[in-house]
Amino acid sequence: MTNFKSSIATIHDAEFAYLRDMIYKMTGIVLADHKKIMVQSRLNIRLRSHGMTTFEEYVNKLKSDPKFREAELSELINRITTNKTDFFRESHHFDFLKETYLPQFEEASKATGNKKLLVWCSASSTGEEPYSIAITLLDYFFTRPGWNLKIIASDIDTNVLQTAKNGIYKADRLETVSDQMKNKYFTKSEKDGNIFYEAKPNLKSIIEFKKINLLEFPYPINEKLDLIFCRNVVIYFDKPTQKFIFNNFEEILKPSGFLIIGHSETMFGISDKFKFLGHTVYQKKS
Ligand SMILES: C[S@@+](CC[C@H](N)C(=O)[O-])C[C@H]1O[C@@H](n2cnc3c(N)ncnc32)[C@H](O)[C@@H]1O
What we know:
43% helix
């Protein structure tokens, strides 16, 4: 009989410290001591895929073999990131878009003639967040033609980005999407007794997916942005990293541009470049 436990490699302090420092430098993610077992269980699959049985072997290879390191780093990051997300997560932000932000933006456009709206969803995970933004925008502008709507959806994790790009979700993932929106923006299909919903081309067409690491500034975005979503990611970073990212956002936003962060995140005591509008919605001061 296979002893399942014996096939799990144990991570020791020296290897954990090495991986923790490397992950921090590459992603900004802070792994406290109590995350050791999580790192061990998430990375065991990486060891197995290389036929390795110990973390010493894995870390030595990372240190000594540049080719291995280069190929392995993105797989390692993909295993370490936490990708929890949902359609219309923290729904008050989508109410804010619909009821406050978009009407204001539309009103301002009457004076400027600008009918282009550029949104960046900067930690888009498996896509539920950028598709929720896209649905909100398309629904609002449905009766208001002539608008150029674009969402850049990015993440550091290449696996979740691919899922986002595919835009195909099991039915239970869409529990927070109304039937009317499901019918309007998704195509239903069935495979092996499971129901799936795929984002329709009109939804996909306003989203550009790309890999962006929030730590690597300048970001590969050529235009100034109207609105940034950066929800439930800076919570994994320390304060200096958060400050660095918020300052970058200030630089890449248009004057008076908006930034939305997650409900358990704050800019208080970290950056004073934004005005707090309530419900973790911020506006660039200048
Ligand atoms: C918990 S998910 C949040 C998803 C979504 N924003 C939401 O609120 O539902 C955090 C995401 O941040 C991404 N992430 C972590 N570090 C990152 C970095 N340095 N640059 C870009 N994305 C990062 C992870 O890959 C993960 O998909």
